[in-house]
Fold this sequence. Notes:
This protein is mainly alpha-helical. It is built from four helices and two strands; from the N terminus they run H-E-H-H-E-H. The chain has two domains: 2-47, no CATH class; 52-80, no CATH class.
Amino acid sequence: xxKLVLKLDQEDTNWRENTVILHDNAPYAACDGTLExxxxxxxxxxxxxxxxxxxxxxxxxFAAFKSDDLNPNHLKLGKR
Length: 80
């Protein structure tokens, strides 16, 4: 994240005014260490609720990818 912030600062010093980092409340995204880092870097954050597919369309891709149609060998892809 530090490298990303440096790059964004170089390209547009006002990027924080029109950018938000979307988090899904996963434990690693909502832990104290991550929150402190994001706050220290002054990164605007927004946390989505569970199953917020409209807010995070990539989740629809992940759901399709994990389905039987795209995973015929039933490889373990998640925590379950």
